[in-house]
Hints:
Blueprint: H1 2-11, H2 18-26, H3 33-59, H4 72-82, H5 91-103, H6 107-142, H7 151-159
Helix pairs in contact: 4-7, 5-6, 6-7
Transmembrane segments: 90-108, 114-132
Keywords: Membrane, Transmembrane, Transmembrane helix
Pfam family, one: DUF3043
Amino acid sequence: xxxxxxxxxKKGRPTPKRKESQSKRIVSxxxxxxxxxxxxxxxxxSRAARTASRAAYLRGExxxxxxxxxxxxxxxxxxxxxxxxxxxxxxxxxxFVVLLLSVFPVxxxxxxxxxxxxVVLLTAVVDGIFLSRKIKREVxxxxxxxxxxGLGLYGWLRSTQMRRLRTPHPQLKSGDSF
Length: 178
């Protein structure tokens, strides 16, 4: 019994009605127009900052890149990969063709499509192994103090993406020297 009297003694005021509590929470939406304008301006500034940051990332500016893409060695890898064509970048469209071929009820087309998919996959893996070795060799040559761990996989994964979908966007055209 003493607990209930202690609780009310400590409180010193009646429990607010639900209507009062809800009206206090809603006050922010009924704030003056100047506060709404400030919030709108802050949202627009935030959106503009995000847009500018994204554009800088896509251009490949060092300050806007995430940690996985930063550094001169990673830039060299991106340029090396972007300066050449690889079978891996055509893998996704080829898979789409294989999917279309599998719809036809002709077993020869279906098996041919599956064989094509496996040939392209195997070729992409072999190309990735050679690309990884080339990347590590170039990085050791140009940046002797830099670690090469993970660079081969980074380059191979980039080479398996379609050119238009690579981020940051390629800075070299296929066939350019890096």
